[in-house]
Amino acid sequence: MSTDPRLPATPDTVVVFSDLNCSFAHLGVFRLHAARRRLGLVGRLRFDHRAFPLELFNHSVNERPGVDSEIAVVGALEPEAGWRLWQGPDWTYPVTTLPALEAVQAAKAQGLPASEALDLALRVAFWAEGRTISMRHVILEVARETGAVDVSALAEALDDGRARRAVMDQFAAAGSGRVNCSPHVFLHDGTNEANPGVTARWVNGDFGLGFPVIDTDDPAAYDRLLTRAADLLDASAA
């Protein structure tokens, strides 16, 4: 049995390290769900979302100019994922994703399907709907809208901070280059891919100053990862 804290404990699980305020992760998680449906693997493979908190790695808020500069470029790869520029006042822009990341971990007590549903809904709430997902009441509203999360139980977990340790442990597990970026996908056998199918570079300055250019985009990367995960699951059952 692997002791690598990045890997899923069972072959029916796919681990995804990511942040919620990351356009490449929003793209990746959308493609991950789409690939699972397309391959007929809903109910067979589960997603274990783990925190890759950019604000802790960078010692800084994930700056809005950088996020905004990515939307048209990354959003054009999968428009159906839902994207729009922030429309609210500047003071309503989320300065942190830690409470929302904690909520996704807390929802795991209700099962990975609940956690998956909340993770995806929080991404849509931020990227497509412009909601301030750093705020407790917004997180709970989004959870209620999923229809898959016990909101009272989630509120209790948020209020006593029981999932905060999980976020910090995942941050530690991802450190020292062990997780390359948001998103980074891991399978039970150690197969992994950072920002699957996408390579990008920044032009005229780094994040927040310049803009990204997509050099390669291969959406089928997620099909290959999930097909490999399904093969591992079948092998474990043989």
From TrEMBL:
Record flagged with keyword Lyase: no
Highest taxon, organism lineage: Bacteria
InterPro entries in the cross-refs: DSBA-like_thioredoxin_dom, Thioredoxin-like_sf
Domain DSBA-like thioredoxin: 13-190
MF (Gene Ontology): isomerase activity; oxidoreductase activity
Pfam annotation, one family: DSBA
Keyword vocabulary terms for this entry: Isomerase
Keyword DNA damage listed: no
Name used for this protein in its record: Dithiol-disulfide isomerase
Species: Actinokineospora globicatena
